[in-house]
UniProtKB/TrEMBL annotation:
InterPro entries registered for this protein in UniProt: ATP_synth_f6_sf_mt
One MF annotation (Gene Ontology) recorded for this entry: proton transmembrane transporter activity
A cellular component term, taken from the record's GO annotations: proton-transporting ATP synthase complex
GO BP annotation list: proton motive force-driven ATP synthesis
Segment forming the signal sequence: none
Protein name: (raccoon dog) hypothetical protein
Length: 28
């Protein structure tokens, strides 16, 4: 579900955290 880039950006974030889902969608 989450790419390695997301893990590197949010290493302290928990994958089960609902907020992570929002951060997983970057606005480029």
């Amino acid at each position: 579900m989450y790419g390695k880039a997301d893990m590197n950006t949010f290493p302290d974030f928990k994958f089960e955290d609902p907020k992570f889902e929002v951060l997983d969608k970057p606005q480029s």
